[in-house]
Design goal:
This protein is an alpha+beta fold. 45% of the residues lie in helices and 13% in strands. It is built from 3 helices and 3 strands, in the order E-H-H-E-E-H. Strand 2 and strand 3 form a beta hairpin.
Length: 75
């Protein structure tokens, strides 16, 4: 008797993007394009420029959210 192959559990996740476009940042923050650029230009949200393209590192976005949550909790 041949036994079935062992079941392998896989945790498949979507690939993590290291750099996000402005529209990709707009969605989770539920902000408009101008508001995201205002955060970038004020230094609240770190970004880099590649040619003419603006990119926001995922760590910068999560750091921004974490900082805002901490600020709200401190009130």
């Amino acid at each position: 008797m041949i036994s079935p192959p062992p079941t392998v559990l896989r945790t498949e996740t979507a690939p993590v993007l290291d750099l996000l476009t402005v529209p990709q940042v707009m969605a989770p923050l539920q902000l408009g394009r101008s508001a995201v650029y205002d955060l970038v230009h004020s230094g609240q949200l770190a970004s880099i420029t590649l040619g003419r393209a603006r990119r926001i590192p995922t760590r910068a976005l999560t750091g921004f959210i974490r900082t805002r949550l901490e600020q709200e909790a401190a009130r």
